[in-house]
Amino acid sequence: MRKCSLEKINLVFAEIAKAYTLYLPTDQNDSSAKFTKWEEGSVWSNALNTVRSPKDFFFPQAEDLMEFKVEGKNIDITDIRQESEDFVIFGVRACDVKSFEILDRVFLVDPVDSFYASRREHGIIVSLACTKPSETCFCTTFGIDCTEPAGDVSIWKTETELYWQANTEKGEKLLSYVDSLTEDANTKAVDEQKEKTSVVMKKLPLANLTTDGFGAGKTMELFNNEAWDELSQTCLGCGTCTFVCPTCQCYDIKDFDTGNGVIRYRCWDSCMYSEFTKMAHGNNRLTQKERFRQRFMHKLVYYPENNDGLYSCVGCGRCLAKCPISMNIAKVMKKIGGEK
Amino acid sequence: MQRIGVFVCWCGSNIAGTVDVKAVAEALKSEPGVVYSTDYQYMCSQAGQDLIVQAVKDNNLTGLVICSCSPRMHEATFRKTAATAGLNPYMVEIANIREQCSWVHKEMPIGTEKAIILGKAAVAKVNLNTPLTPGESPVTKRALVIGGGIAGIQTALDIADAGFPVDIVETKPTIGGKMAQLDKTFPTLDCAACILTPKMVDVAQHEKIRIFSYSEVAEVKGFVGNFDVTIKKKARFVDETKCTGCGDCVDKCPMKKNPNEFNMGMDNRPAIYIPFAQAVPKVATIDAGACTMLKKGKCGLCSKVCGAGAIDYTQKDEFISEKYGAIVVATGFNVISMDKFDEYAYNQSKDVITSLEFERLTNAAGPTAGKLLRPSDGKHPHKIVFVQCVGSRCENCAEKGKEYCSKICCMYTAKHAMLTRDKYPDTDVTVFYIDVRTPGKNFDEFYRRAVEEFGVKYVKGMVGKIVPEGEVLKVQASDLINNKQMHIDADLVVLAAAIEPDKSARPLATMLTASMDTNDFFTEAHPKLRPVESPTAGVFLSGACQGPKDIPETVSQAGAAASKVIGLLCKDKLLGNPCIAGSNELMCNGCSSCERVCPYGAITYLDKEFRMPDRTTKIRRVASVNPAVCQGCGACTVACPSGAMDLRGFANDQIMAEVDAICK
Amino acid sequence: MQVKEYKPLIVAFCCNWCSYAGADLAGNNRLNYPADVKIIRVPCSCRVNPMFILRAFQRGADGVILCGCHPGDCHYTSGNYYTRRRMAMLFSMLDYLGIERERTRVEWVSAAEGAKFAATMNEFVEAVSALGENKRLEDLRCKR
Amino acid sequence: MQKITREQLLDRAVALLSDGTVNSVLGWQKGEFDYDVTPHIFKSADELKEGFVWNDFCYANFSKYLVLKTDRIEGKLLVFLKPCDTYSFNQLLTEHRFDREKVYAIGVGCEGMVDVNKLKAAVDGISSIEATEEGLKVTTIYDDEPTVVAIENVLLERCVNCKSKKHVAYDELMGEEGEIIDSARFDEVAALEAMTADERFAFWQNELSKCIRCNACRDACPACTCENCVFNNPNSGVETKAPVTSFEEQMFHIIRAYHVAGRCTDCGECSRVCPQNIPLHLLNRKFIKDINECYGDYQAGEEVGMRAPLVDYTLEDLEPGEVLNRRGEDA
């Protein structure tokens, strides 16, 4: 484990930015935080987390796939992808780090999504342990330890110091760039911090939320649960929950005719939308109840069924904070599942 | 996918001089959907059209783009050509490469480049064209004329003479209107009654005309060719079919002191009355507000004296529904109220009267049996002052008068002045005016005669104040030409009060969805080219309801309106414009935005049952466009937020395709 | 560096009854105006949806002008009155968003005003040229 | 702190349910925390007693639900309407979007609602909130001393600039009737208008670039009740699912604001629900301000049946150029 004084943090950033494009959370004028590209003068945010999740780095909201021109009977296809450069996402929380694993299981299995894979390969994740979780946090429900975040490099921030620990080769390499600014350290301060944080974790309002009653094999049992009607009753069908969610991975592929050719691009889609997966015969899920149910069944039943029991929620709490009507996965889990 | 043929016209050197037509034809060949492209010297010539027809046959074309002159020039021509070739005429688009290209640009490369772009836009549009067919609707061969004045009478007679049944709805107990109240008419000075009453009799006797007197239009539904109208026949407590108009009841009625409307309230009539001797229908009417039998159940004298047994105190308002193909509005005018013109002392002195009251004072059938006597004391007036433009041309006084010129006052004042001087040469007559407006056949001659032969004093200037003092009216006025103040002690003052549309016109316009101007005159479909039609199809305008008019003008407009009605009723079916709006019911919110902007009232709402996504059914309110009424302006398409409303022939996707093609 | 002469792209929506005829008259009288102006015929100025205008800017137009009958002369009696309100509000919003107000315009041109049509177009093209390319309402995808 | 108590509303709702006046109640349901209140249709008195809340976090505007819900339920629906909600209620009636007969509306006096974002910015890790006369007494999960936050510091923007405490529609009113307020709600718009075009452009680029097209603004908006929104309709030519370019961000927000212009009651839901905190109300208010200045004061929803300014005209309306230049050539 290495450490550096927080006073030197901007030097550290400058050093990293020499080798990589560096992104880190900065405060916005509306008191929210957002991952932005580091440049001289950027100030690392103290916020617990960003409104938009860091999934954007690997799975951006919109990305061009190819371009084609039709002339007469000829179709001219151009691969317009741009090679990624190595980049660092600094200060990713444990929950969000976990979300990458969930996305990987979608995009990196055969057939591998080469766009996603390329970004993943070039991205270096510097994770940050939590010290002051919010009331909306429930990562423990999904077995995530926010004091022990994964990633290429894990960091712990104390009052005065930043502790670093490389977990992967990519991480080692990154740390080597800031070698001169860091020094060896023991884990005492970090251990103390972990201890303190876990006390708070146990007191969180959602600390007792469990996945009992969900998971693989529960489809038939849960699908016709009467509570879906009530839960989905006032859902507006907007896509806020899906778009702030670090694990939602649905997208649509669309063509845009520029007048001088067609750009085929993909963009996020939301299962909450009435037009979602609309096909020639119409829509699969005709009511908001069905769409609402799909979202939670996917996260809590279908995904674990296909992915060795792994749930596709990381308890980051973004949807709890942002849903216009304050309906969310925690309420769904409590209503349909149970508490410890 | 369309199979489009492109035809580039040279128009001799008109186009070819500035546009490389061959290059245009060549460039458009590779546009999507284009399978054939050629150029020719004169596309509109028979040979050119034959070339198009042949190309359609040879290449199985489904759409045509003609790059030529303005569509305003030859769109109709090429639509016919398309029809000849077996295509729907609306599968044609014109790229205007003459008026909007070759004629306004000088250099060949620039003109050619623009012509190609305009051609591409037309191709892009045709790709989205769909065959359009005009809608058909039947025509009810009956007309309704609202108002029984000279305008309504003339229109009804003309329509009826052409063989179509006509109903006249008149709110008063008799037809005849304002003209029946007049004494003589300018500029010929023939007696109004002498020329009007025969026409009234013609109406009464015409087998194709029905008169609904003492009646009002209660409701109008439907559209051109197919109006459903409900007429309210007010209870007159006299059975029209039995009453012979003998007048016995009128003589016997004890309630004699009711202001006589026909004589402008200058004398009285009984509670049961016939407005005037030549009334049509000549049937008595009981004034329910004045009759003690109806109010208190006491009297019943009229019933006793009526030999025909026509009196029916139990009569109720009756509602009659009828279908009409066309409606003519002839609601006429009224004199404005003088209540707000305190300066003229109208309400203070009986001897300040309006011109219409003057008409009755000089009419042989009027309250004074035609002798010009002062209303106050019955004496002969020796000094009369006429004031013109009372409430007319009144700038910035909307609450009092009218901004417009009432048009008829100059002439009738000249008439009054002249007749007074003619009959009573001892009377001094002064007319105060702003301008004397006498455009019209023999009008100026008439006015000059009043001045030159009859010695009427015309003073340019306005009357500032009239103060009744004892027996005289002190008139203060200014003489603008001699720049001096004038004081006249007049015996009688006649105000040429402005005229305004009848008050019934505004609610009627709402029922008809016919538009009105801010003065409540009906708006014509086009001020120059369609002056007797309302913008609402099937509604026509006759007489002063459209604007101030004298009798000859009214009669000509009445005839014109009649000829338009006859033209409409002659048709068995109406063919609509196929480029009209249509609502996609699945997307329509029923919010009424489109209805509110439709200038024609073409949009109505239906409650329709829809199958919802969750397999339930739901009743939803959706817009429905009446193809016979819609004129295709497209105002509704933009008012519609969901895009449910679209315009055929100028659809959203077509216009956007044109935009895209131009901006490529 | 030699810069290629900038030619703006102007889309003109003209109502069929007055302004389109006015444009035709400009042609009949051989009154020149720049070829940068491309006319789209609509039945009435009230047919022009704000989406068409934004679409034109998206696709590369540098200026959009709407021409209709003079107020009071609308073939459909009231269409241009709605146009007047709609465009006043839309253009004011575009201005509020920082888009140059010279890029949009409404002009009433009657069928008799061929000269006015040509003059308006000359003036509008000049005003838009002075602004240069539309950058604030552009869609980069359409400029590749 | 609200003057009307939860119990007052609850009693009334239970009474109306039990006497059969209404069949169900659209009200606010208690959440996981003291601030995450969810709109809910209560079907029974027991359900109400257990879950119904009325507090400083009942910000949701229920009017829009009437479009979606009234034809799905038997009998009448009881709905609670705050003053600002009643304007949306009337506007929807004007547009024939729901059946008035299916609704029993109770007007509820409102003292302003709390912006949770502002509250969270003031206090981290909220574990409970108690409304007191002094303000909101907030305790945290970190066992800190409770903080008292003055309500006026954490009100929603729309409540800071509240336009009316008067209910323009109801069957029954609970609490005292308020007045229409001469608010300063156009000040921010005026400040933007006073900037240069470049500054305005920069401002809006910054704001609109945050948009993630989650459609929350549209889907929460009581004026956006289209059966099929143009932005969802692949045939409309403007359908998109993501703001792929800055143009599409602009397009969506301009057209959305334009489509609700003259119909927007300024209820503020768009800005409240935006997860990216884009001040969307500044777009709608610009239209309202322009309409007021150019065509006379107009408050959408003030009365049922009013003719919206953009489906109306007068012969003397200003020309578009005059509207643009009425404050000078270019601000």
Percent of residues in helices of chain B comes to 25-40%
The CATH architecture term of the largest domain in chain B is 3-Layer(bba) Sandwich
Uncertain residue ranges of chain B: none
Anisotropy-based shape of chain B: elongated
What is the helix content of chain D? Answer: 25-40%
How many structural domains does the protein architecture of chain B include?
A: 5
Can you tell me the CATH topology of the largest domain in chain B?
Answer: FAD/NAD(P)-binding domain
Shape designation of chain D: globular
Number of domains of chain D: 3
Mean pLDDT of chain B: 94
Overall mean confidence score, pLDDT of chain D: 93
Query: How many helical stretches of chain B?
Result: 19
The share of residues in extended strands of chain B comes to 15-25%
Largest inter-chain contact set: A-D, 52 and 43 residues
Strand order of the largest sheet of chain B: 10-7-6-18-29
Tell me the fraction of residues in β-strands of chain D, as a range. Answer: 5-15%
What does this structure look like?
The complex is a heterotetramer of chains A (340), B (664), C (144) and D (331). With 340 residues, chain A is of the alpha+beta class. Chain A has two domains: 2-203, no CATH class; 219-336, no CATH class. Chain A has helices at 9-19, 94-107, 114-122, 169-177, 188-203, 219-223, 227-232, 240-244, 288-306, 318-322, 329-336, and strands at 2-5, 21-27, 33-37, 62-71, 74-79, 87-93, 123-128, 153-157, 161-166, 183-184, 251-257, 262-268. In chain A, the strands form two sheets. In chain A, strands 3-2-6-7-8-9-1-10 form an eight-stranded mixed β-sheet. A four-stranded antiparallel β-sheet of chain A has the order 5-4-12-11, with no helix packed on it. The relative contact order of chain A is 0.15. Chain B has five domains: 4-126, Rossmann fold (3-Layer(aba) Sandwich), CATH 3.40.50; 135-234 and 318-332 and 506-575, 3-Layer(bba) Sandwich (FAD/NAD(P)-binding domain), CATH 3.50.50.60; 235-316, Alpha-Beta Plaits; 335-500, FAD/NAD(P)-binding domain (3-Layer(bba) Sandwich), CATH 3.50.50; 581-648, Alpha-Beta Plaits, CATH 3.30.70. With 664 residues, chain B is of the alpha/beta class. Chain B is built from 19 helices and 34 strands. Chain C has one domain (10-143): Rossmann fold (3-Layer(aba) Sandwich). Chain C has 144 residues and is α/β, with parallel strands linked by helices. Chain C has a four-stranded parallel β-sheet, sandwiched between helices. In chain C, 38% of the residues lie in helices and 16% in strands. Chain D is of the alpha/beta class. Chain D folds into three domains: 6-113 and 160-174, no CATH class; 116-154; 187-324, no CATH class. Chain D has 13 helices and nine strands. In chain D, the strands form two sheets. In chain D, strands 1, 2, 3, 4, 5 and 9 form a six-stranded mixed β-sheet that branches. Chain D starts with 5 loop residues before the first helix and ends in a 7-residue tail after the last helix. Classes of the chains: A alpha+beta (340), B alpha/beta (664), C alpha/beta (144), D alpha/beta (331).
